[in-house]
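Is pyridoxal-5'-phosphate placement plausible here? Inputs below.
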Amino acid sequence: MNPDQLLSPPVNALPRLRSAVSGLPPYVPGRRGAGVDIAALASNESHYSPLPAAAAAVTDAARTMNRYPDMGAVDLRDRIARHLGVTPAEIAVGPGSVGVLQQIITGLCDAGDEVIFAWRSFEAYPILTELAGAKAVRVPLDAEEGHDLASMAAAVTERTRVILLCTPNNPTGVPIRHELIDAFLSRVPSNVLVVIDEAYIEYAEAGSGPDSLALYRKYPNVSILRTFSKAYGLAGLRVGYAVAAPDIADGLRRTAIPFSVSALAQRAAIVSLDAAEELEARVSGVKEERDRISTQLDAMGWELRPSQGNFIWIRADNELLATLTDAFTSAGILVRAYAGDGIRITVANPSSSDRVLRVLTRFAPGELRRSAE
Ligand SMILES: *Cc1c(COP(=O)(O)O)cnc(C)c1O
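Reply from A.M.:
I modeled the complex. Tokens:
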């Protein structure tokens, strides 16, 4: 046998993507909220301009962007550790918490290992899992749009490496109660990493969700995932972090793409943690708006679950989904539609809420019933 022949590819063959990659959903260019009267309510971003201190830190850091950033993100990890009352050895940062989650999944999963998460939940979960060659195990949400922890515990197998809990859940806004996660963790094998994704924690009412740090201290197989993209308003800078047992955090730092968190992002995140009061005022503004919209929608007959995030969730079949999506599009409002499940609308300033309310008034369940008669 001629070894050259073994290496010769079929005629005209092109490089082939892994099946895990060709199976990923294609990138759909987002409609940009560029026009003056477009309300960009599809991505759960903060509608506030960057904090003045963050903008200044970025401008200052930009002067040295010919240099690589601190790969160890030492100052930022120190500041986060102080914020939470843990040690820097327990912190790993990454380019957004999605970046950190990728470090977690690739750091813990071999091909064929299993990652369990609720569905519907954050869209990045199946993508990162499948990209790592691991198997996504989706456990349907319960009737209250929350995590069905009993079924999630029952889904654990020998191959389970990671369980993702999203609280409050994106896109339904439903938190997971502390006692429920505590009971869940007491059943999950200690070699399975349970990640508590708290991307929206700042918007949640105290006590509605878990005291994740207490759970982390009680169960060393817990990791907490947080981001500067949502309440902190740094979505475009890409920085998030995980709290994890020192060995795990060390592993996450090693799986990171070198220098993936820019100096601009590191500095902006530090000054954002220093601006707690300003931040709190912004968060309160969004929570007030969320409560105002929710009360009005409730009065119109929309039966929504109370949301603990900066968004509201409308469960809708595909017919209602198409109707609402068209109406929002015509009104210049960008929202996030999930085929077969519903629509998620980011809560922003009062004027955008009023526009959302105007659309939803037209299709309020009472109205629909009347127009069908
Ligand atoms: C937005 C979001 C994130 C954060 O994404 P970043 O990569 O930090 O911008 C993480 N988890 C959930 C559930 C989210 O909705």
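Short version: The radius of gyration is 22 Å.
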